[in-house]
Amino acid sequence: AQSVAQPEDQVNVAEGNPLTVKCTYSVSGNPYLFWYVQYPNRGLQFLLKYITGDNLVKGSYGFEAEFNKSQTSFHLKKPSALVSDSALYFCAALLYNNNDMRFGAGTRLTVKP
Amino acid sequence: EADIYQTPRYLVIGTGKKITLECSQTMGHDKMYWYQQDPGMELHLIHYSYGVNSTEKGDLSSESTVSRIRTEHFPLTLESARPSHTSQYLCASSEGRLAYEQYFGPGTRLTVT
After folding, report:
1. Of B50, B100, B103, the CB nearest to A32
2. Which residue has the higher pLDDT, B62 or B10?
């Protein structure tokens, strides 16, 4: 079955430290991968995507993600976390039919001052 | 911020009532989606549309129906609301040809008493 997994429900980091939010995928063909962020009582905001090309993609708010085909992973990273980064983060993969975006269960990131 | 709008933002309604959740986008996107999300949980696709007069059911079985008479408008209707319909409903759209990321509205938080 095609799926996206976020193995951590919760990630806690101190402000100023690097952060990583993990994502692995199992989809057919070449994956199109995405990260979204959701703040309380809001819809999801697109952060970044990997379609093809450079394995390291940069997105909004200083976030970046690294596509690793051999490990089927697409981890979200930021060199220095801010308290305002605290939110719910979703990894997603576009299925081969280009119509269905499969989302992970989400990871709640808490950045403590 | 994406140009996709949902109304109402919050709705409390009694069992058995008919309701329509509105979703509009001004980006000219062909593809539109409805997701159901319990607070802080994963998203479940309930309906999607490729374009005008095209609608499909998603992974999650839903008693709701949708219509797509105009490109910019994708309303979701519940003929008879039940407490089990209590959830957050997120509408999204995507360009779908050259760009695949989805843009989300702010959501409608529905409570059925």
Report:
1. B100
2. B10
Contact A94 B100 (CB under 8 A): yes
Query: Does B92 touch chain A if contact means CB atoms closer than 8 Å?
Result: yes
DSSP bridge partners of A50: A33
B21-38 average pLDDT score: 94
Any residues with CB less than 8 A from the CB of B34 and at least 6 apart, and which?
B23, B45, B46, B47, B48, B58, B64, B66, B74, B76, B89, B90, B91, B92
For residue A101, the one-letter residue type is M
Q: How confident is the model at residue A97 (pLDDT cuts 50, 70, 90)?
A: low
The residue with greater pLDDT, A98 or B66, is: B66
Token pair 């008919």 is at which residue? B18
